[in-house]
Amino acid sequence: MGGLDEAFIQAPEHRPITHLTNSGDFIFSDEIPTIDLSSLQDPNCDKTPIATEIGKACQRWGFFQVINHGLPLNLRRRVENTAAEFFNLTAEEKRRVKRDEVNPMGYHDEEHTKNVRDWKEIFDFFLQDPTIVPATPELEDTELRKLTNQWPQHPSDFR
Fold first, then answer.
1. Model confidence over 17-49: pLDDT tens digits?
2. Domain encompassing residue 128
């Protein structure tokens, strides 16, 4: 087995710490925020408390888990299995749908944090396909750009 690629090694000052930034407390998995979305099924529900809870979780933790979201378990499992099937393909196969300047959606495996390559693979896609976006970030530019998803050939039910 070879050595670890230097591109993945974080400088000591950028490595994760095992305690919260603003306290001496250590992080335990049962402290990870769990956000219950069941109240959102009521169209008259005030969404402010949930939004506040999500904001606090993101600020303190950077992530959270969601319960009572209304998605059927079989759908979630299908998505997880199909994603696993895609990410288990060869690098060559996955890179056939690699995102670039022309196609910002698709496969990506070269994300960097603090100039160090992240240990992750990504497949970005639009929920609304095609999606219309401003052509540039300039406010006075009224030109629009039509973006579409690119999908891999395998697995065939990835779409």
1. 655 555 555 656 667 899 999 999 999 999 999
2. 1-15+91-159
